[in-house]
Amino acid sequence: MYRNNIPLLAVLLLPVVEMILLVYAGSLLGFALTFGLLCLSGSIGSWLLRARAPANWMELMLSVQQGRQLTAPELLEPMLTALAAVLLIIPGFISDVLAVVVLVPWLRQSLAQRLAGSGYWVSGVDGRESGRGVIEGEFHRD
Fold first, then answer.
1. How far, in Å, CA of 66 to CA of 112, rounded?
2. How far apart are CA 17 and CA 48, in angstroms?
3. Are 88 and 44 in contact (CB under 8 A)?
4. Global confidence as pTM
5. Which of 37, 14, 11 is closest to 25 using CA atoms?
6. Each residue of 36-90: pLDDT tens digit?
7. How far apart are CA 73 and CA 82, in angstroms?
8. How many Cα neighbours within 13 Å face the side chain of 86?
9. Are 75 and 108 in contact (CB under 8 A)?
10. ∠ CA 42-120-80 to the nearest 5 degrees?
11. How far is CA 127 from the centre of its chain?
């Protein structure tokens, strides 16, 4: 199996595993408690998305207006917070656990650092790419 197919496989299998876990939790905890926990996590995720997303956006815009150069982790952290909020809105316990892990500040910072250095995000000086995967050439309009 190719390494690039693993995230796709995880995304495709996650709903199946979530459903199995929800049925098991429903039989163990009861329908009312399971449904209540799902509603609570969805409400928290919705509140987090409405409360933090605009604040994070304003902080980024203020930093840019002040002329501060932002690092990749500084840009990724608000996105990870929004991702955690969306994961809380999605019904299921695995997505809720992943959201809580992302919401822990030192884990979120570590994840942002790791993503920034993983090669998925190409960064360079003055907005130029670092040279990886860049094909140099010239363009002439005829």
1. 23
2. 25
3. yes
4. 0.72
5. 37
6. 999 999 999 999 999 988 888 888 888 888 888 888 888 888 889 999 999 999 9
7. 14
8. 7
9. no
10. 20
11. 23
- Is the Cβ–Cβ distance between 91 and 42 less than 8 Å? yes
First to last CA, the chain: 46
> What distance in Å separates the CA atoms of residue 117 and residue 111, rounded to the nearest whole number?
10
The string of DSSP letters for the chain reads: --TTHHHHHHHHHHHHHHHHHHHHHHHHH-HHHHHHHHHHHHHHHHHHHHHHHHHHHHHHHHHHHTTPPPPHHHHHHHHHHHHHHHHHHSSSHHHHHHHHHHHSHHHHHHHHHHHHTSSSS---GGG---STT---------
| Residue in this structure with the two tokens 């993983």, named with its chain if needed | 118
List phi, psi (to 5°) of 118.
Answer: -85, -15
Indicate the residue type of 57.
W
Classify the C-alpha dihedral 114-105-93-42 as positive or negative.
Answer: negative
Round to whole Å and give the CA distance between 56 and 58. 5
